Amino acid sequence: MPGENLSRDEARERGELLSVTGYEVALDLRSAVGEGPADGPRTFRSVTTLRFTCARPGAATFADLIAPSVTAVTLNGRSLDPAAVFDGARIALDGLAADNTLVVDAQCAYSRTGEGMHRFVDPEDGEVYLYTQYEPADARRVCTTFEQPDLKAPYRFEVTAPDGWQVWNNGAGALDADGVWRFAETKPISSYITAVVAGPYHYVTDTYRRTLQDGSELEIPLGAMCRKGLAKHFDADDVFLVTKQGLDFFHEHFDYPYPFGKYDQAFVPEYNLGAMENPGLVTFREEYIYRGKVTQASYERRANVILHEMAHMWFGDLVTMRWWDDLWLKESFADFMGAFSMVEATRFTNGWITFANNRKAWAYRADQLPSTHPITADIRDLEDAKLNFDGITYAKGASVLKQLVAYVGRDAFLEGARRYFKRHAYGNTELGDLLAVLEETSGRDMAGWARSWLQTAGVNSLTPQVLYDAEGRVQELAVVQDAPESYPELRPHRVAVALYRRSPEGGLTAYAHTEADVSGPRTVVDALAGAERPDLVLVNDQDLTYCKTRLDAASLDTLRAHLGSVADPMARALCWSALWNMTRDALLPARDFIALVLAHAGRESDIGVLQMLHAWAESALVHYAAPAWRAEGGRLLAQGALRELRAAEPGSQHQLTWARFFARTAASDEELALCQALLDGTEKVQGLDVDQELRWALLGPLAAHGRADEAAVEAELARDATASGERHKVRCLASRPSAEVKAAAWEALVESDTLSNALVEATIAGFAQPGQRELTAPYAEKYFAAIERVWAERSIQIGMLVVRGLFPDLRDDPETLAAAHDWLAGHEKAAPALRRLVAEAADDLARALRAQECDAAA
To answer: Are the C-beta atoms of 496 and 515 separated by less than 8 Å?
Structure first.
């Protein structure tokens, strides 16, 4: 039988054959504490009773379970030999009746990789914490399932846990007199959004109340939890504030009451994702609990994630895609609704700026990779599904939905959503189901729109083309649209085009503005004819459409001198985005982009945009700058960061942001000495609080440049003997400039399977240091020799981390690119998901080499 993968065809066949009426799952988690087995994995008992009907009695199928061992399998009272029917991933079932009961008693393994039942031991106090994470298909690591989203069913859980623990599930529960936690049966949901959280978590409660449109009263118990060690940092009041604001917004606009009873939110350790929308028990990475001072952008990011997951309660949990092809039906909507609700219902009213500058940058990158795909993707199997949680499914889809709202109208869009929920509640849908309700509410033909925007890949570029008359006025302004040869679709765009000029006070402000429908290769915008000559022409002003915006030569010259004076923060963010895309496309030398950052970033008011500029500047230096200029570019960035740090308002979030950027760019003796002095307290910057997180940031460059040895790193850990401190320690130790250090890190990542997912990430982050290219160069050949074995032996999550994180992109030369292409040519039968990861990394490297040529010619 096949292994752990599941194909779309198999799922379709099983979905047509079966209907699931209910699950009863009993877990015994007492083995989570105490000594583990001398050999083999630490396991827990899982007993699943699965009730289902079969459309063709006598047929055969299979159930899904990944477990070290199975004790007993009973089908309709008939005992089956586990050795005969269980292959490690599937349980073969034959001779099915019309109504069936399957009981499986198994020993399932605790996870160190964030997949299935993850077990974490807190180094601070030795306490054990458990949580589950399943998407797309890891519920089968905890109980026996039919692991596909269209076989929904009610679930009823009971959990036996160590004394003193609390346990949470999707439904409300309590500890019974016999010491077992029993939970209310859920509504019909998919297996991948069931959840269990267990341990001595710190738990805070609140209540949400609302009078519904029919006059009834809705009351939702709220809960929020984290590890005990983080309790002193946990600002649950702010989490509850955003939660209540979001529930108000969605009840107001969806006209469908929250359907899953309680609403718990768990912040858990070593989490692979940002968060997961388990109904009634949302899980988040605990890094959203801030141990030190952070900027407003961090709180905005957390609010966005809270609201994104809340939108999933309707888009994804109540109504679920039939198969992972239509993953966008939940993720694109949640990404869009997260920003939409945040801007309209919370204090973070500039959220669309972050969306334009940050989220869409993710989408633009993904849409130019060889693995780009339509928003409605072709997902052949679970490995494909795992990799399609990408910038296209999330951010491009959300961008397209934003313009869909402009296309059909806000009221028609929201009314379509309301009909969609009521028509398909607790069911599964495909693209056509959504288009049908939008056609009803808008009167628009959605088929053409869907073909252009949902069923084709690639990103268009829009460039202004301006002709002036003898008096210097605009004679004709056109928008030129182009597309890559591989994806030549020229789409219809609703855009705003704005003309900017310098005001007497020196700022760049818009003086002429219009909206236009752009289609085909060239569209004339008649409304702007006769306008005075602009200093800057901005296509896609207000960020109405999804495109790469180009700049004409005069506008580019204006921005070189005056970008910081663009008055509107959204317009300024869009200018930065245009410049970054030009840099990535080898149309603007990397050193020019860095010069723009150094000249104008100090005037950036939006802290999220500033943080993005820092990340882009680093990437420009590391990947896109000519090698011969990197040292000079690094010196300029570090000096600029220190200058802005000293000039920033004491105690401000801008000061903190520049301090962190300085720590990441510090390289000279003088700069490193300042990092050490700030750590020692022998030098201070007025208003800068060097808290524990900033201490680790300052220690990072010292370790990477050989100024902090193992003893210094261990001493810092003694100050911060926490899970976060442990991750920082591992990263710092792996970053030291030593061949022995790199060899040890490689061994831990590639030849051993002892590190948890979080420590794998930390080790990779330390291993790959831009200033240590000569130390990591010998591992390029080893990488290509090892990755197929790593992919076969490790979980898909760890495989993805290793294959992506260790790709030798820092050895940025044609030989490395040729080696990647040779590997792809010689491994045509390798797992498609593995080939995709290598092809993506090779494409990034090819892009970097083109950009370096552009920069060298500057």
So the answer is: yes
* Averaged pLDDT, 470-476: 94
Give residue-wise pLDDT tens across range 201-214. Answer: 999 999 999 998 88
Paired residues of 760 in beta bridges:
none
Radius of gyration of the chain, Cα coordinates, nearest whole angstrom? 28
CB 778 within 8 A of CB 801: no
**In the predicted model, is pLDDT for residue 783 greater than 90?**
yes
Average pLDDT over the chain, rounded to an integer: 96
Beta strand 180-183 pairing with 217-226: unpaired
Q: What is the DSSP string of 485-522?
A: TTS-----EEEEEEEEEE-TTS-EEEEEEEEEEE-SSE
Average pLDDT (138-160) is 98
Q: Strand order in 128-133's β-sheet? A: 116-121, 128-133, 196-199, 166-169
Residues with Cβ < 8 Å from 97, sequence gap 6 or more?
54, 57, 76
Q: Could you give the angle at which helices 653-665 and 630-647 cross, rounded to 10 degrees?
A: 150
Question: By C-alpha distance, which of 228, 204, 290, 217 is closest to 257?
Answer: 217
What is the structure's pLDDT at 1?
A: 29
In whole angstroms, give the CA distance from residue 199 to residue 177. Answer: 19
Give the number of other CB atoms < 10 A from CB of residue 179: 10
Question: Which two structure tokens, joined as six digits, stand for 78?
Answer: 């008939």
Taking the model in full, what pTM does it have?
A: 0.96
Would you call 693 a catalytic residue per the annotation? no
Euclidean distance between CA atoms 42 and 32, whole angstroms: 8
DSSP H stretches of helix in 648-707: 653-665, 669-680, 692-704
Question: What pLDDT is stored for residue 503 in this prediction?
Answer: 87
Which positions ≥6 away from 395 have C-beta within 8 Å?
335, 359, 360, 362, 363, 366
Buried b (16+ CB within 10 A) or exposed e, 518-547: beeeebebeebeebeebbbbbbbbbbbbbb
In angstroms, rounded to a whole number, what is the distance separating the alpha carbons of residues 102 and 82?
13
Catalytic residue among 309, 604, 618, 716: 309
Contact 701, 663 (CB under 8 A): yes
Q: For 402-438, write each residue's pLDDT tens digit.
A: 988 888 889 999 999 999 999 999 999 999 999 999 9
Which stretches within 681-795 are classed as H helix?
692-704, 710-719, 723-734, 739-746, 757-767, 773-776, 779-793
C-alpha–C-alpha distance, residues 250 and 244, integer Å: 10
The label of the residue with tokens 């198999």 reads: 10
Q: What angle do CA 313, 249, 303 make, to 5 degrees?
A: 75
Mapping DSSP onto H, E and C, the string for 216-271 reads CEEEEEEEEEECHHHHHHCCHHHHHHHHHHHHHHHHHHHCCCCCCCCEEEEEECCC
The answer to whether 384 touches 833, Cβ cutoff 8 Å, is: yes
Asked if pLDDT for residue 169 goes beyond 70, the answer is yes
> Which contiguous run of DSSP H or E holds residue 415?
helix 410-424
Pairing of strands 155-160, 18-28: parallel
Strands (E), 60-201: 61-64, 69-75, 78-80, 90-93, 99-109, 116-121, 128-133, 155-160, 166-169, 173-175, 180-183, 196-199
| Residue tagged 């029993």 (tokens) | 182
DSSP E strand boundaries for 375-534 = 428-429, 461-468, 474-482, 493-502, 508-518, 522-524
Integer Cα distance of 373 and 378 in angstroms: 8
Rounded to an integer, what distance in angstroms lies between the CA atom of residue 601 and that of residue 610?
Answer: 7
Q: How far apart are CA 510 and CA 197, in angstroms?
A: 52
| Interior/surface letters 90-110, b for 16+ CB within 10 angstroms, e for the rest | bbebeebeeebbbbbbbbbbb
Contact between 540 and 547 (Cβ < 8 Å) = yes
